[in-house]
Design the sequence.
């Protein structure tokens, strides 16, 4: 039974896509949601749609000052932060030769430095509470290798390292740290490369078919995994990577072998 009644949960990147589904899913179970994102209009619309105590705060996760403002403001208003769901991330598609050092650094800034800064910002109050849950949204690209995404993959592998180190360090303070690792699906993240992807429909079909359960990962599955990990139902669970990926990170699917 997952009960999130009145839990105060900060969700980054909640203005659209997976983060929006997570924010709405946690709110539906009673949580008081704070959405942090750089997309102000979209973020405010999501918070308004959720209604009740849900709020939007402008937050660039790569900026330490933004974290201080949002975390201090939330603590002043709500008195506590029970969970941080760090979902905000950026993608860069490019071979190693087509990934500039600036692009590589920008991806680490959002996808790895962001969760580092966010964790540093929420841990002091969680320690005082003697309880807290931190969930990072990783990716199967942080569990297996894939070509053309060196900057993104490096950030997501690094995120799992951050999670495991924090899980060991913070467990005795009552703080659990876990990573949910979805497979590819949400098209909005790929929008800057949409023209490239429409030129390779066979590749996309192969990618979505190369898993035990074929097709895109439903957002609701990711949101449910997060709800479990922020709730007391997972009280003894820390340091895990939870793939929500139709089995994509578990192996390879050869269609012909199912006929053998
Ligand atoms: N889309 C996929 O196929 C896929 C696959 C595996 C994992 N994921 C992961 O799921 C999470 C959500 O992805 P999505 O598909 O919803 O992506 P998305 O691009 O649709 O949404 C990302 C959100 O993060 C916000 N964001 C980006 N940079 C930010 C910053 N500096 N500060 C604050 N907010 C910022 C964006 O404004 C946006 O609202 C990410 O961690 C992503 O890596 C996505």
Sequence:
């Amino acid at each position: 039974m997952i009960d999130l009644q009145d839990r105060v949960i900060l969700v980054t990147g909640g203005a659209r896509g997976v983060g929006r589904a997570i924010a709405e899913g946690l709110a539906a179970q009673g949580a008081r949601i704070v959405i942090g994102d750089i997309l102000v209009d979209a973020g405010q619309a999501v918070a308004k749609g959720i209604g009740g105590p849900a709020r939007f705060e402008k937050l660039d996760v790569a900026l330490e000052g933004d974290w201080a403002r949002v975390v201090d403001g939330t603590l002043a208003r709500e008195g506590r932060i029970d969970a941080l769901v760090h979902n905000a991330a950026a993608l860069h598609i490019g071979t190693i030769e087509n990934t500039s050092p600036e692009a590589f650094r920008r991806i680490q800034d959002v996808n790895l430095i962001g969760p580092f800064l966010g964790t540093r910002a929420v841990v002091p109050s969680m320690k005082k509470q003697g309880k807290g849950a931190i969930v990072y949204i990783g990716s199967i690209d942080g569990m297996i290798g894939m070509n053309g995404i060196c900057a993104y993959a490096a950030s997501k592998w690094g995120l799992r390292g951050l999670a495991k180190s924090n899980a060991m360090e913070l467990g005795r303070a009552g703080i659990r740290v876990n990573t949910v690792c979805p497979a590819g699906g949400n098209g909005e993240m790929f929008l800057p490369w949409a023209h490239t992807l429409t030129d390779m429909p066979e590749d996309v079909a192969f990618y979505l078919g190369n898993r035990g359960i074929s097709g895109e990962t439903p957002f609701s599955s990711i949101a449910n995994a997060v709800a479990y990990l922020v709730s007391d139902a997972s009280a003894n669970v820390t340091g895990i990577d939870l793939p929500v990926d139709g089995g994509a990170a578990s192996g390879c699917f050869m269609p012909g072998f199912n006929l053998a």
